[in-house]
Amino acid sequence: MKPFLKKKTDKTPVAPTQTPTKKNGDNIIEIKGVTKVFDNVTVLDDLSLGIKRGQFVTLLGPSGCGKTTLLRCIAGFESPTSGEIYIEGVPMTSIPSYKRPVNTVFQKYALFPHLNVFKNVAYGLKLKKLPDASKKSGYRKYTKAEITEKVNRALNLVGLADYGYRDVNSLSGGQQQRVAIARAIVCEPKVLLLDEPLGALDLKMRKEMQIELKKMHENLGITFIFVTHDQEEALSMSDVVVVMNDGVIQQIAQPKKIYDEPSNAFVADFIGESNIFSGVMEKDFCVNFLGKSVECVDKGFEKNERVDVVVRPEDIVLTKGEGQFVGEVLSTVFKGTYYEMEVLSDGYEFTVQSQNEARPGTTVSMLIRPDSIHIMKKILTINKYLGEVTGENEVTFCEGSFKIPTEGFETGDEVVVYVPFNAIELTDDEEDGVIGANVTQSLYKGTYYQVQVFTDSDDDFYIDTADEWDMDDRVGIKIDGGKVRLEKYDPEKEEKDEAQG
Ligand code: ATP
């Protein structure tokens, strides 16, 4: 039986903490409730986003999170399964890609190898039809002089003013990408879509092109939507960053806000380095983590609500004894402008970055100021699936049959299966598990890793484990049936729970 909580729907999508615009009227693009499903897998999940005219907006997230799919939906190369995309207030569903006021630059430049630089850039202009009432056909083409003027302007903008005659094959990767950008901007789109356009360049060229692109954006004054999985690139170039994971928007904000105030543990971990601990909100302005009650600036949580506590390494101050946590320095590495230290405190590992060096073996006191503590709602606290009792002490869900006590249930009963994070064991050898999965995320939480895996049945499992797993590791899943809770499936209750998120 298929699990009823398919990929992503079993997570509470994190509402954007800040939309980039106040009035919808300011938005050149409105994405409303867009879902995209490929082969029964939800790749974009009810996604809504407003993009302001003239902004440099970056879609940022790990590989496979749906960035390119969203960009392709805006461009018209893919159609959303549901939802609508508006450009300048016009719904795009029935508008083919070539009629949309957008143009796309891809990672692979896809230039015509037999045409020189000028002809590559001029190609789109030559095909373009301009409305002209004086003509019988109702349109005309650009004149040679108009084409020359526009191509030269575009080449000038990308810093290739004297390159028109050059064979594109004789250009460096960075120059070829500039030609691709010139080709995309020459038709004067209102929105330029850039799909990892710097991905194929070496680091030095990439850095140079980041600066160039930013300048081009300023000079052109049009909206840029840029896709990258490189957080540094996103933070340094954008007006607004949209962080995505698993087809769900995690946060929309200006780069500084994304860094300083990540909306959840995923964003905190993905953007920069973080210490992430599990905690409990004792009351407003007071969180308990690692066994200590610590002052914070957050309020409005339920009493004793479980939360993630995020502390940036550079926000931990090494003091002479006024800190809340005391620990022993395990290692110290000089990183050019600061020291990075691993400190062990009561069995928990902190990463600390400081201008002051503390040598391995010394005892340090760590002070975390209230405004350096970021409290985040836990996205999910238990794994939940729909299953079926398929025998005595056997429950089938996520396309696997697991040994789970079934007292009080009968074979054929539909059940909701609650699997705590600590009830799951990952095995190196897929064959040793009941079902197979790929590791999609691993967050270190001070004493353990919280690992997310994606099964072959398109389900997510969250696991708390002492072991470190790498992204894309292939694993098997075993479950300690004694820790699993079963509940009789009640469609009405489930509907209510879903509605309450
Ligand atoms: P990357 O940075 O690796 O390009 P991304 O965030 O841009 O990743 P997408 O390319 O949007 O991710 O892909 C999201 C998911 O959708 C992936 O699992 C991908 O395999 C799947 N996908 C994309 N296009 C198709 C398609 N045409 N048919 C089936 N699955 C697809």
Any chance you could write out the topology, listing elements then pairs?
Elements: E1 27-38, E2 41-52, E3 56-60, H1 67-75, E4 82-87, E5 90-91, E6 102-105, H2 117-127, E7 130-131, E8 139-140, H3 144-157, H4 173-185, E9 191-195, H5 203-220, E10 223-228, H6 231-237, E11 240-245, E12 248-253, H7 255-260, H8 265-270, E13 275-283, E14 286-289, E15 292-295, E16 305-311, E17 316-319, E18 325-334, E19 339-345, E20 348-354, E21 363-368, E22 374-377, E23 383-391, E24 394-397, E25 400-403, E26 414-419, E27 424-427, E28 435-444, E29 449-455, E30 460-465, E31 474-479, E32 485-488, H9 491-499
Parallel strand pairs: 3-10, 3-11, 6-9, 9-10
Antiparallel strand pairs: 1-2, 1-4, 4-5, 7-8, 11-12, 13-14, 13-16, 14-15, 16-22, 17-21, 18-19, 18-21, 19-20, 23-24, 23-26, 24-25, 26-32, 27-31, 28-29, 28-31, 29-30
Helix pairs in contact: 2-3, 2-4, 3-4
The structure holds adenosine-5'-triphosphate (ATP).
Q: How would you sum up this structure, described in words?
A:
- The chain is an alpha+beta fold and 501 residues long.
- It has a six-stranded mixed β-sheet with strand order 6-9-10-3-11-12, sandwiched between helices.
- The longest helix is centred in the middle third of the chain and has 18 residues, at 203-220.
- It is globular.
- The two termini are 24 Å apart.
- The model is unreliable at 1-23 (pLDDT under 50).
- Bound molecules: adenosine-5'-triphosphate.
- Residues 38-39, 43, 61, 63-69, 229 line the site of adenosine-5'-triphosphate.
- Adenosine-5'-triphosphate binds next to helix 1.
